Amino acid sequence: MRLRSRVPIAVLAALAAVGVLASCSRASDSESSGSGSAAATSPAAELRLGYFPNITHAPALIGVDKGYFAQELGSTKLTTQTFNAGPDEVNALLGGSLDVAFIGSSPAINAFAKSNGEAVRLIAGAASGGAQLVVSKDITSPEQLKGKTIATPQLGNTQDVSLKKWLKANNLEIATAPDPNKVVVQNLDNPRTLDLFKSGQIAGGWLPEPWSSRLVDAGASVLVDERTLWPNGQFPTTVVIVRTAFLQQHPDAVEALLRGEQKAIDFIASDPAGAKTAANNAIKQLSGSALAPNIVDRAFTELSFGLDPLAATFPQLSKDSVTAGATQKETDLHGFLDVTAVNAVLKAAGKPPVDAAGLDRPKSS
């Protein structure tokens, strides 16, 4: 009897050991892929989405306004929150009050770096282009920026990094107080930038749409179109990132959201006039006032929209953050990108997959 009692115990012990090893193996696979496909998943009761009331976030504006996200999410409740700059949105994401965010490329990198590559994953693109250095018309060369004040939306945001990298490339020193031989970079909310430009208190700004177009409408001219600084004129202005834990627990909800985004992008392509109206309606609801039609028209011509996050540009963007002083060292971006959901959506739509440029793989040991 004792012998028979020991056999099941031994077998159970062996099975438990195998189970532990298998569990460790699955956990390792999940962590290395970043997809969480092997983790236990469940329907999401709610998806909390962050985005900006900017034309650069048109797929998000339209996805909410036209109900595309809600339709695809089904029983999952969509809760939205808007932001004016990426660093604030990163804080909300890392603090656990957001699940998914449409965001600039530089804050996306910073969120990954701040969490030591753990808390967020890049899952899709949204917009490329749509950022310019616009200045008063008497300024026609970089040298003439000396002694002037140029605005960006927030310290460390995508346009702030782009401006500071460009200033350094043109041997222009950055100051925090007026200096006749340096350029003052001031971080301002976009509406404040417009007001100060109109009153002549600042010379311009490196701004996303529609704010660059609004300054042009107020008398500014384009000194630098950021598209001219990138191969093929493409750089990721807006991308989509998700909390890693949410992606692992609710991959179906993430894929559903991206299906809604693809619907919004298809709508922009098939009905540009309707897309402009939908985006402007959303901006009016969020900010209290609509944009002038000529502003919307110009802003849309400066942008292209798509689910491709342009992964190959991110190593350079990481270097740019160091050059601009936003980060102290380059971020190792291995494991940053998870293309599982976006490529599933693109495949279903009959579109080619995005290139992960190796960023979907963990750093080799």
From TrEMBL:
Where is the protein situated, by its record's location annotation?
Answer: Cell inner membrane; Periplasm
Q: Which GO terms describe its cellular component?
A: periplasmic space; plasma membrane
Leader peptide range in chain numbering: 1-22
Supply the Gene3D superfamilies for this chain.
Periplasmic binding protein-like II
Stretches that traverse the bilayer? none
Coiled-coil annotated residue ranges, if any: none
* Primary site of residence: membrane
Pfam families, per database record: NMT1_2
Which keywords fit this entry according to its UniProt record? Cell inner membrane, Cell membrane, Membrane, Signal, Transport
Q: Which family does it belong to?
A: Belongs to the bacterial solute-binding protein SsuA/TauA family.
Q: What name does UniProt use for this protein?
A: Aliphatic sulfonates family ABC transporter, periplasmic ligand-binding protein
